[in-house]
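@channel anyone free to eyeball this complex?
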Amino acid sequence: MDKTFARRRRRDLITALGLAVIAALVPLFVSDVYVQNIMVLTLMYAALSQSWNILSGYCGQISLGHALYFGLGAYTTALLFTKFGVLPWFGMIAGGLISAGIAMALGYPCFRLRGHYFVIATIVIAETALLLFQNWDWAGAALGIDIPVRHDSWLTFQFTRSKLPYFYFALALAAVAWLVTFWLEDSKWSYWWRAVRDNPEAAESLGVVVFNSKMGAAAVSAFLTAVGGSFYAQFVSYIDPESVMGFQFSLLMALPAVVGGIGTLWGPVLGAVILIPLTELTRSYIGGSGRGVDLIVYGTLIVLISLARPQGLVGLFAPGRKGTAR
Amino acid sequence: MTAATIFQSLASGLLMGLLYGLIAVGLALIFGLMDVVNFAHGEFLMIAMYATFFLFAYLALDPLLAAPLVAAALLVFGAIVYLLIVRFAVRAKANAGMVQIFSTFGLAIVMRGLAQFFFTPDYRSVTHSWLGGKTVSIAGIFLPVPQLAGALVSIAAFAGLYFFINRTDFGRALEATREDAGAVALVGIDKNKVFALGWGLGAALVGLAGAVMAMFFYIYPDVGASFALIAYVTVALGGFGSVFGAFAGGILVGLVEASTALILPPSLKSVGIYAVYLLVVFIRPRGLFGSI
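replying in thread with the prediction:
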């Protein structure tokens, strides 16, 4: 381990700690529920995009079907709670484990596919799950599940009077996703993934077990995404297939990382901080007319950023430091 | 389920499949030429349908007459999209794959937003056309005439495309550029011009599809999204880059969709398409006719 790398990691950790403390203090000064709502969503997408980034950025397997894991997390928690009275905390773990298991089961055939064949397979699998959930009567079919709100409590993870508990959980989630990525960056996995992403044949010949390292990335990524989905179900307390498993979620998870810097530690956080407030604000201030101005603004931004800074915006904030992605 | 219902659905599936092929072929052509997947392909279809609708609404032009005009307009549009966006996207030095996906996807979002802004989210339809609502009966099987016309347009377009690629100078330049873009520059072919025309041609083909579809489909800002996924699956099934693969893939998708609707509830008809896609690529990761 060379010195600059060690110093960089120490600086990253201190920066993260500082940001987390600042973020934790913000709600003390912001009491507006609308703004708090945006902050919760920003943290949630930072966490989701960070999870997506593990598989698609670091390991290079571009998934546009992560809505599947998000939806599975949301549904597992909601179904276990409404049908069997299982507390959401257990549902969250169960959803994560189920998603990780399914990600590996799907990875088994899918990781043989390359390029666009893989991307389309991920879309198609998530869409199939969406259609199946829309037709699954026991799980509420297209109408979805209304999670009954009993009383505010950390035990059932429901809060009707204040958004603050959700805020702190989302902050914790974003922190965990960041820490997992941080830890992975210095593990053997990160080196394997870089090799797999940049040149799978060479990696294979050097003894990297390409297939297993993809499976590992998929499992971690799916687990964290599903926990995000569980959180979202509790946060909105009503879910239906389209609103937790729709294709737009797969994109919303990918975009912060793409805008911030794919395959980088800070890219997803930066991207989420820029994109989510912007989306929410344009939607409420100019999109309310239903005339699509918010889409025009959002789409233009994505085109411009991806053309002007293909490596993401993160490089603007830390000159001289390159993302690991190609 | 009688034999007659089975034949009836397979026949409609075949017609729809030929149309899916026509929707998808532009995507296959562009991919074959320069390895780029246009994630705004569905939105190209959407604006073609709107163009057809407005030619009908303001000039009382029948979609069949509008089709060549719409195709010509899309040709220009496709070339412009290449020159303004894609040309820069393929130059990206970092994250090339991502930049292609998200620059064209951003364009798709903008186009959807513009359609909502100018045309409102209302559902439109071409209320009467020469062929609309008519059916013919062939050997006891009833076929809607607009879909039949669409299928014939598709076959004609594929035949024309085959002739174009194999028999004209530009077609040869297209083939040569797809084989080796660097080498064609040495013999004095402007790569950018070929790519721009390739995008124009791809867009014109989906324009043709849009004009035909306007006869029997509702037109709204999000209409492209549902067909785009089918188009990607069609192209991937046939094998990325293969024009013939898109034709075969389209027919296969249409037939699978119709057969699935016979067995499963209609809301699940796409599941059959997705399952066949996965099955095919798991066995043949290059699609049916794709080369390495």
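from a first look: DSSP finds eleven helices and two strands in chain B.
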